[in-house]
Design a protein that fits this description.
Blueprint: H1 2-17, H2 20-30, H3 32-55
Amino acid sequence: MTNKLSLVTGLISLSVLLSSCEVIGAIFKTGLWTGVIIVAIIIAVVIFIARKFSSKK
């Protein structure tokens, strides 16, 4: 339960601290391939978290 609570707290704080416009702007400043790698990592993490929650049901 504590692990889920810390995960939710971390996700909420990230969503509050980083608006989508700031993230997109930072990706364009760093370059195309860096942006592609960052987006791929984010998608992989989301899929990993979704599988963790769906496998426990």
